[in-house]
Prior knowledge:
- The complex is a heterodimer.
- By secondary structure, chain A is of the alpha+beta class.
- Chain A has helices at about 40-50, 90-100, 105-120, 135-145, 165-185, 195-200, 220-225, 230-235; strands spanning about 5-15, 15-25, 30-35, 55-60, 65, 80, 155-160, 185-190, 205-210, 210-215, 240-245, 250, 255-260, 265, 270-275, 280-285, 290-295, 300-310, 310-315, 330-335, 340-345.
- Chain A has a six-stranded mixed β-sheet, with helices on both faces. Chain A has a six-stranded mixed β-sheet with strand order 13-12-11-15-21-14. In chain A, strands 16-20-17-18-19 form a five-stranded antiparallel β-sheet, with no helix packed on it.
- In chain A, a hairpin with a 2-residue loop joins strand 9 (about 205-210) and strand 10.
- In chain A, helix 2 packs across helix 3 (about 105-120) and helix 2 (about 90-100) packs parallel to helix 4 (about 135-145).
- Chain B has one domain (about 50-280): MetI-like (MetI-like fold, Orthogonal Bundle), CATH 1.10.3720.
- In chain B, a hairpin with a 5-residue loop joins strand 1 and strand 2 (about 45).
- The interface of A and B includes residues 98, 130 and 146 of A.
Amino acid sequence: MNDLSLRGVTKRFGATAAVDDVTLDIPGGKFICLLGPSGCGKTTLLRLLAGLEEPTSGQILVGGRDQTHVPTHRRDFGMVFQSLALFPHLSVGENVAYPLAIRGTPRAQRRARAEELLSLVQLSGMADRRIHQLSGGQRQRVAIARGLAIDPKLFLLDEPLSALDANLREHMQIELRQIQTRLGVTTLVVTHDQKEALTMADIVIVMDRGRVQQMGAPMEVYRDPANAFVAGFIGTSNLLPCRLLDPATLEVSGQRLPLAGQDRVKAAPGPAILSVRPEDVRLGPEGLPARVTFIRDLGESVQLVLDHAGQEVTALFSPRERPEVGIGETVALTFAPGGRVVLAP
Amino acid sequence: MKGREATTPGWLGILPGTALVVLFLIPFGIMLAVSVAQRETGGFYQWGFDLSGYQRFLSAFFGGVLLTSVGIAAGTAAIAVALALPFTVILAGLSRRTQTAILVVLLSVLSLSEVIVGFSVSTLLSQTAGVGNILAWLGLTAEARAYTPSLFALMTGLTYLSFPYAVLVLYPPVARLDPELAQAARTMGASPLRTFFSVTMPLLRAPLLGALILVFVFALGSYLLPQVLGRPEHWTLSVHITDQAIYQSNLPFAAAMAAFLLLVALAMVGVALLLAREKGDRA
């Protein structure tokens, strides 16, 4: 299988490290999302994998073989660029068959393979169209088909769906995932959209400031964030300053909260941050005092925005559990046992 | 279209329109009239309708001259553009500051007159002061020799003069090229050279054709360099036109040759545009 390994990969541009000492081991055949805010180094990491940038130090291995200094055109990867980079001087079919033409595949065979790939992305019979005759979604599919033409060892995609409108994007996320499952190709997608990552990925790699912050299955990263950055970036999290007195007791705003066995503690005793998802915030007879500042009725859910000692706290309820409170009222907050994560500050 | 008409007043076109008629169409008409005028031996010419100038041109000698002119112009266009394309592609990849500096140097070449360029190349390739001495000193040749006048010297001079024009035509479209297109080709297995020929060049088809036409027309009218750097067999039609008009006092024949030259230039440009159109429709 085409396992992917990175060993201390670093890429510096001048004094700044765009990718800073990244070490990863990714099993082959998986769908991986590289997730992070813009400028976090995810695109640079993808370009390093593609060979479009050379690492300042470190090693990149695919299937156990060192690829660090192999030129781009000898890596046998597939790549979809953010701009798609389709060739306007070639037809749809010629675009898809370009990697095969470069490798000297006979014309008839090229044509057959292009047709096969186009039907994979639901563009059968479009081979003779020009690129400018296609819609945005169709171009997206052509770029995907072209990237898969040679059965790549690694399929790299840089923000592939960012140019599409919201509906089409969600549709393409599902489709891309289905294609990957069918072909079993090791796939790496760069995205800044956490929903997109959670929809498609087997493995999510969260990056910030050139470093990998956390790697894991989507739900694992969601439920068990490694640090405050991940907690804030994946989904919505309430982050409250607190103090860990001992591994089972927390102090928030002078009140003691006993921790349950399912709660996760990732900090040493001392100052810490309490991370709680909005769906794990409850209103109770007793708890932290907070004032209701806004109520958002979203139909499928009700969102309460609360103010606790100058800290904004968001709580999410299903419409059936909508609490009987109004704006300006003071309530008491509690957090569901098992929904609390104590992080290092 | 409507908005365009409204924003640019039509009367602004009067000045260039008038200039075109007075400075181009009327002289051109006079030239055509002279080309069919009757020559007076030992004198000037008389108005009339005499096609002997055209007939004389259709001889083996002037046919050969025309072929030489077209060949030299086409050769210059091919060499200048072949040099300018990789130059411009590499230039566009440099930093902004370096690009500006190089473009300024290139533009300053345009300010040199054909005379200076002609005599510089002539000196550079001469026996007494030319590169031949360096070659001899290096032991590559037995002794220094002159490389001018020759076709090589002529092509060198013409290429030197037209190279900046080719770069100026190619630079804007090359600078606008999306670098991801070439990178995409690289990820699909194309070597840098293959990428250049299979992606970069086809994408620049129209600007390349434009540069070829410009340099071709520019070189087709060359008059001074063929005399400074070429042998008599490399003299272009322009040289012969001047010869007929000034030294042989045969204005009708000179005008007829000029008309031919113009026809050839127009035909070449037309063919090039047709070629571009055909591909453009497919694209």
